[in-house]
Input
Amino acid sequence: MSAMNDILMDGPIPGESLTQEFGTMPFHQAPEIDDPVEALDYHLDRMLEPKIRKAMADVLELGIPVKDLNLGMLRAAVYDSTHSMDTMFTIASVTHEALELLAEEEGIDDYKTGFEKSEEERENEYTIESMKAKKLLKKHAATGDLEGITESDLEGTEQEISGIVVASMEAEPEDAMVDMPEEEQQQEAPRGLMARGM
Output
């Protein structure tokens, strides 16, 4: 068996926490730190310890995202009853930034934050933004708002997104302002039980 299998086989059995008498597990106790600022100081001080700092840098260098390392570190503190789950969510963004700074200080240039977008998501966003820009340019070119841009400059904007061909959009004419007849402009008098003047 590999070391990873040993770790997995050593994990808790689903429902195991329900077989323990309440108060015997670390997370059953009241948290040691109530103040989020103190909890943040606790984690930042730990990150400065050479042994822990080196372990975190090694993990980030192996490609584990900062987001996962951060959540693991904070959840371990919740499990040990160092601070509560509420405190964890309060300080999570600051500890995440601290871990990114740690990675940069340790010279890890290619660390992952855990919030990166996939290549497909970036391509789709670019395609949609490009189409919106072309529609806007086409609209302004038709009204003469943009100098030097003509309809012919914007031809051939058909693009394919996920197998669906989206035709380039035609410029929409400005909505004509039509004067409403006076009788329609006057609002109808309120009716019903609560209407005034009855």
Remarks:
- Strands lie at 159-161, 164-166.
- The chain has seven helices and two strands.
- The longest helix spans residues 119-143.
